[in-house]
Input
Amino acid sequence: MTVYLVGAGPGDPGLLTRRGAALLARADVVLHDRLVSPAVLDLVPSSAQLIDVGKDPDTPAGGAARQEDIARMLVEHGRASAVVVRLKGGDPFLFGRGGEEVEALVQAGLAWEVVPGVTSAFGVPAAVGIPVTQRGVAASVTVVTGRLGVEDGTSEHDWEALARVGGTLVVLMGMNTRAAIAAALVRGGRAPETPVAVIASGTTASEQVQRTTLAGLGEVELGPPAVIVVGPVAALGQHDASRGPDGPLAGRTVVVTRSSGRASGLVDALERAGAVALELPLTRQVEPEDGGAALAAVASAVRENEWVVLTSVNAVDRFMGALRDARALGAVSVAAVGPATAEALRRTGVEPDLVPAEHSARGLVEEFPDPSGTGTGRVLFPSADLAPETIPEGLAQKGWDVQRVVAYRTVARSAPEPALLERVAAADALTLTATSGVQAFVALRTPEGMPVAAPAHVVCIGPTTADAARAAGLANVHEAWGASAQGIVDELIEALGPREVDGP
Output
């Protein structure tokens, strides 16, 4: 049993280390900070226990006591579970109190490992084109925390001395005390017109960048997590935004609503075509209410069925995980709704017996054979709790005895940041890959309680999802050219093409 302190990086799951991602994928328990990106948490298996141990930055005294609780929970879970991950924003040892947590593990006699992460102090400015050091501009960089636990935010550091150091100053957790920090730096000799960049939710879909000066820092209204960069380098990185990637979707912004763990193929395909993929994970897959007991029971008796029908990668992962191994299927035939589901089956050593030409529940029902009369006549359908009744009802009409079992539940996420919702409304297209995603999208509300405006072009991965989108009131709904990431991209290329740029 080992406790792993993993740096989550600045937000984008692509900036997580390979070691960190591998540990999250096999974690039994994950204790995570309050501001760890949901896209990173998507890498955690739904069978793992997720525990939010975030501390309220507005209650520093309570935060100290809370840290003792975190250490206690780490020890308790470290003794009871095989793989425990303490997931910390940025790097565990940079203002993350990781050292204190290691000391608690050592005192308890538990094994531990630290997996470094990309610190937001350097990664977030770099992602927007700001080098914290540059020859002839800044020869040094100083990183400090602005969350000081005192009323005016200035007494724990000698800010006037820091002002005289020169170079670049990077302030983390400083939004609540930004005005006091700016005043102290000016008193120390920094010019009021010193460039400042404030980057909120860096490297994520909610990223916002505001350029100002020390004199104007107190007027910046951006929420946490934010990185404040002070110094001449803060004026860099303001390059011509029109010089983006080339491709048939260059200049287009496309909203991807799949959970990040399943969205990588679509995101990659969009980016290869030159589009900006705006990730908006709306749902998360979790254990069934019975903890998977029903699935385990039907898996142990799988040979009582003639067919198993699987309509998602999640269903494949759950069902095949419940089997001893692929040999347990024996002579049972297996149907997959489309190429992604079929490929997930092949990774487990099972070649599907049926993949319909139309990659949809409707297409599967149409191509499914009639009962032979010599077999059991039973079909096992492990599915999401919210999956439509198209398959069980359609196969029942053909004479099959369909046993549907919940393999996983789909639950809505917490509301996205308002800044992200604004970007969604301004995007060129919205992609939807499941009816649960349709339901979650139309349920989104702005801070004022109004429905979130959908982009003008909506692409769905199949007819079932498209029908659900139209029924939910979404306009200009189209079907992808195939039930795959490339099918979505091909439809967007045909319908939208690159964005025209004015000027030479």
Observations:
- Residues 58-65 have pLDDT under 50 and may be disordered.
- The two ends are 62 Å apart (CA to CA).
- The chain is about 30% helix and 20% strand.
